[in-house]
Amino acid sequence: MSGYSKEQLLARLQELNINFASYDHPAVLTVEAQAKYVGHLGGALSKNLFLKDKKHRFYVISALSGTNVDLKVLSQRLGLGKGGLRMAPEEALQEILQVSLGCVTPFALINESARSVSLLLDQGFKAHESCFFHPLSNEMTISVNTRDLDKFLISIGRNPAYVDLEATPLVGKDQPPDLASLVPSETPSLVGAPEKVVQNQAPDGNHAPAEKKGINKSKAAAKEKTTGSAKKFVAATDVGKLIDEIINKTCASVLIEVNKDSEDQSKVSLGHLLEKVSQKIGPDLESIAMSFKNAAYIEGFHAGLHSVIDRGIQGLSSPR
Amino acid sequence: MASEDGQKAGGAGGENEGAEEMVVNPWEVAVKGGGKIDYDKLIEKFGCQRLDSSLVRRVERLTSRPAHVFLRRGVFFAHRDLEEILDLYERGEKFYLYTGRGPSSEALHLGHLVPFMFTKYLQDAFKVPLVIQLTDDEKCMWKNLSVEECKRLARENAKDIIACGFDITKLSSSPTLIMLVGKLFGCAFYENMVRVSKCVTFNKVVGIFGFTPEDHIGKISFPPVQAVPSFPSSFPHLFSGNDNLRCLIPCAIDQGCCSRIGYQKPALIESSFFPALQGETGKMSASDPNSAIYVTDSAKDIKNKVNRYAFSGGRDSIELHRKYGANLEVDIPIKYLGFFLEDDDELEHIKTEYGAGRMLTGEVKKRLIEVLSEMVERHCKARAAVTDEMVDAFMAVRPLPNMFS
């Protein structure tokens, strides 16, 4: 299992032009111990929890060390019921986040194995110029600001989600759980060493991140397909999702133009208004549709490839 | 690639305007003395012609759609043999596009995207296929990066390129040495490399690229790799039998020199340089993060960079500004809007108001920030949708049955 090393992470941060300061210290397992070495440096210490729910979905909660995190409240806000969240077992730490005890960190999401882990960040981080996290090793602490943390997260295909972790909104029949969109849509399926993976998230924050898993072509022939791969292309070629996005974008843009128009003194014709709408959303819709077309083509390409491989395995010659 | 002697920029007549010297090569663009880049001299130096408005109108007629912003605004301003390409297109013949990138860093900035955005328009407008070359081996040899790192960067850059909105059913990757590996010998691409290499003397490459005896032979043997994709016979799985297919290369004007190597010149369409945030005197560089807007920049980054670093042509005080108006010649936000603001009327309006001093720098920058943020967000989203399987397919040797439709 090849998880990212601290050096690889730091190299990646440098490539992304992320400024960070790093501090070496003896291994620490708790925030208190970490505070002994870096607490005086003026940044905000973080406490990081690795949790799982009853359906074997995983979460990293990264909060200011002073924030009160009530798992019962969070569990309800995520729509998991009252006792739905508990600490994840140690094996999961190794298998999914690929870090050791005492080393949970948002940066662990750089690993493919952590692709379906949901990350909740304390809104309180934004009030600090720099925050302390472990860079995949508990013998070092790095300090970054939230802008750079976001840059890193976006670079690994994540949409940073900042949450007021101390809020206690009512959750009931008429008040849906406010963090429900942060629940992962897939449970992690760990098959040997998965190839690189891209997290697909629509920035208009609709539902839980959709996922795709990469399969190395030469390994596919030798390995049985897993349940995860069935969902592999589903999200990217989901027609319903595509249409929803198109309709939402169009309606939102029409509303904006209509509101603008009603504020303006000079009334414009409907035709003119619609023309502005189509100018505004045209490039975005083209981009969305092209991503869809490409994803569908790739699905077909790989299906064709595998059908040729399968025919080869069965001793049949490939079709001319 | 090239390291042209700066003194030659004076032109055939030998005239020397003051102490200005221009250095233009694929690695460096600078004007000594801090002056502006003289594109007329470059056109003369590289043996091209101006892309005038009648040609732009011809393109519009032939493609039945408005010309791309970059053509309308003169970003792509020079060409070689473009008229021949348009002639053959009008006759019903085909051509294909070839462009590329040396993947030396993961961080792509907007200047890098410009040729790809334009190439996408060309592909859509003329309905022709595109071959993209990611010269991971070139970067390996010139920048001393490891082979693994170059391969990884090539894949990452491929994702950004695909995210520009290319239709993968019309997009093929040109094999580079690193990707060819065991398939190298016996393959048509390599055969053409051998042919081209035999046509170029050592003296010629020294003259074009400025090699010295201390340069390692990897650098010296590389140039044919870049020339060969301009020959359709290098891609038998795409263009088999169609040996007369012409090739059109959209590129920045400093890249055109490499096409001098081939014995059958491809057509070129060339762009001016995308200016750095700090001003017109140079081009964006991946080694100076504040000289450019990166595709990974957040909305906050873009706002910060434009507000703090974008060189303004506005006057020092509001009174002076209202009196004299802004200096549009050096104002970077106006230039960037010239690249990326689609609406011609809005751009004209902004230029008029700003130039007359009625609009302030802050407003212009605000509009630019909006435009850039939208673009970068769209790119990010599209890039997130590019999977490793897509990159695998892009780099696979695969036919494109609908490439001309």
UniProtKB/TrEMBL annotation, chain A:
Gene Ontology molecular-function annotations: aminoacyl-tRNA deacylase activity
Residue span(s) of domain YbaK/aminoacyl-tRNA synthetase-associated: 25-152
InterPro entries (UniProt xref): ProX/PRXD1, YbaK/aa-tRNA-synt-asso_dom_sf, YbaK/aa-tRNA-synth-assoc-dom
Chain intervals for the UniProt region annotation (Disordered): 200-223
Highest taxon of the lineage: Eukaryota
Family: Belongs to the PRORSD1 family.
PANTHER family, A to Z: PROLYL-TRNA SYNTHETASE ASSOCIATED DOMAIN-CONTAINING PROTEIN 1-RELATED (PTHR31423:SF3), YBAK DOMAIN-CONTAINING PROTEIN (PTHR31423)
Name used for this protein in its record: YbaK/aminoacyl-tRNA synthetase-associated domain-containing protein
Native source organism of the sequence: Spirodela intermedia
UniProtKB/TrEMBL annotation, chain B:
A molecular function (GO) term: tryptophan-tRNA ligase activity
InterPro entries in UniProt: aa-tRNA-synth_I_CS (IPR001412), aa-tRNA-synth_Ic (IPR002305), Rossmann-like_a/b/a_fold (IPR014729), Trp-tRNA-ligase (IPR002306)
Classification via Pfam families: tRNA-synt_1b
Any GO BP: tryptophanyl-tRNA aminoacylation
Predominant localisation class: cytoplasm
GO CC terms in record: cytoplasm
Places the protein is found: Cytoplasm
The enzyme's E.C. designation: 6.1.1.2
Keyword field: Aminoacyl-tRNA synthetase, ATP-binding, Cytoplasm, Ligase, Nucleotide-binding, Protein biosynthesis
PANTHER family: TRYPTOPHAN--TRNA LIGASE, CYTOPLASMIC, TRYPTOPHANYL-TRNA SYNTHETASE
Protein name: Tryptophan--tRNA ligase, cytoplasmic
Source organism phylogeny: Eukaryota, Viridiplantae, Streptophyta, Embryophyta, Tracheophyta
